[in-house]
Amino acid sequence: MDGGILTSMFHVELPVIEKIIRPIIVYIALVVGLRLAGKRELAQLNTFDLVVLLTLSNTVQNAIIGSDNSVSGGLIGMVTLLILNYAIVRFMTGHSRIEKLVEGNSEYLIRDGKIQTKRLRQEMISLHELEMAARKQGFISLKDIEEAVLDPSGALCFIPKKPEPEVMRFKELAGRLERIEALLLARDRPEQENT
């Protein structure tokens, strides 16, 4: 193999310390930016959010690698990001206050069966998007939901309404009537077979 090819592939044009600092700065900027953008950027993506995230990765690429396109430079940036992410996640595991500060809190989008329209606006989630997410989890209508919680990860959790006591009594009585009917049918069958 030609020495020139190896040199161009693996020669790091920028100082190694710069190759380490660049990904750290971009990582922190992305964490802060995504935190400020809201939870929907993490999981509840619409077409516009997806376009932003795809172009975001391309936009910050040069900030991470600079003018160095070498394999070694890319590997240094990759290893730096992986180590930084591991260290931060490991650190936050033992520090719940910092984790809460970075990730945020869970937010109620529906509480006690009432849609929290102000919270929906703050989280930039439309009623239509909430309805679609509810249908994905098996709910026919938002009227069937007691609580909808937007987790810090961006996931939506739906808790169904409990049936009213009258509905429960009706179902219980209907079940008893079905069992009585089955017993009567079973009792009448032997008499009909004997005749």
Task: Explain what the structure shows.
Helices cover 65% and strands 9% of the residues. By secondary structure, it is of the alpha+beta class. The chain folds into 3 domains: 3-103, no CATH class; 107-160, CRO Repressor (2-Layer Sandwich), CATH 3.30.240.20; 166-195. Strands 2-1-3-4 form a 4-stranded antiparallel beta sheet. β1 (107-111) and β2 form a beta hairpin. α2 (16-37) runs antiparallel to α3 (47-65) and α2 (16-37) crosses α4. The termini are far apart. The mean pLDDT is 81.
**Annotation, overall tally of beta strands:** 4
Structural class by sheet pairing and helices:
alpha+beta
Tell me the distance between the termini.
Answer: 99 Å
* Major beta-sheet overview: 4 strands, antiparallel
Strand fraction band? 5-15%
- What is the N-to-C succession of helices and strands? HHHHHEEHHEEH
Query: What's the overall geometry?
Result: elongated
Taken together, the total number of domains comes to 3
Number of helices: 8
- State the strand order across the main sheet: 2-1-3-4
Helix share bin: 55-70%
Q: Which stretches are poorly predicted, pLDDT < 50 over at least 5 residues?
A: none
User: What is the C-alpha radius of gyration, as a whole number of Å?
Assistant: 29 Å
Mean pLDDT: 81
